[in-house]
């Protein structure tokens, strides 16, 4: 009898341990499946309305775009006037590389300018300027040295000085190349201190 009790306890212990392991595995699998299902539910995986809403918004935007295109098409077309065919010469600009620095006459002030020229002629004018840079610089500096402090305060001083420089540059080029060609002089920098 004592032997039978021992055998029953041993057999019952094996059955109870196996059931516990199966229950534990089933519980873990159930928790994993439940977690995955709830995650998909809360992220909207099972909700078909999100795709429908997006498609509705896209179709609404397409409808608005089509309506706007129709509205633009119904407006009268702008009348374009054709510009008269005028023969224009090509404008060429050239900036002299170095600044010009000179004292203002009878003053402690200094004038610094940087020049650019404009011509409607070909590149030959530019190459002539580069070829005779020293003579042109000298004639420009001569004009700058004659400027007084009173001249600087005049309203049209810069315009007059630009015209004087243009005439001097053309005279120098005509002296060496028999052709000036500079039509306008611009100041890209102009400082009086």
SSE layout:
Blueprint: H1 2-42, H2 49-74, E1 92-95, E2 100-103, E3 110-119, H3 123-131, H4 133-145, H5 149-152, H6 157-177, E4 184-192
Antiparallel strand pairs: 1-3, 2-3, 3-4
Q: Can you put this structure into words, describing what you see?
A:
- This protein has 193 residues and is α+β, with helices and mostly antiparallel strands.
- The protein has two domains: 2-72; 92-192, Tetrahydropterin Synthase, Chain A (2-Layer Sandwich), CATH 3.30.479.30.
- 59% of the residues lie in helices and 14% in strands.
- Strands 1, 2, 3 and 4 form a four-stranded antiparallel β-sheet that branches.
- A hairpin with a 6-residue loop joins strand 2 and strand 3 (110-119).
- Helix 4 (133-145) runs antiparallel to helix 6.
Count the DSSP helices.
Answer: 6
Quickly give the structural class: alpha+beta
% residues in beta strands = 5-15%
Instruction: Report the biggest beta sheet as strand number plus sense, adding barrel if it closes.
Output: 4 strands, antiparallel
Shape: elongated
Kindly state the number of beta strands.
4
Order of helices and strands: HHEEEHHHHE
Helix content: 55-70%
- Do you know the CATH architecture of the largest domain? 2-Layer Sandwich
Q: Alpha-carbon distance between the termini? A: 126 Å
CATH topology of the largest domain: Tetrahydropterin Synthase, Chain A
Average residue-wise pLDDT: 85
Number of domains: 2
Q: Which residues sit in consecutive blocks of at least 5 with pLDDT less than 50?
A: none
Query: Looking at this structure, what is the CATH superfamily of the largest domain?
Result: Band 7 domain
Radius of gyration (Å): 47 Å
CATH class of the largest domain: Alpha Beta
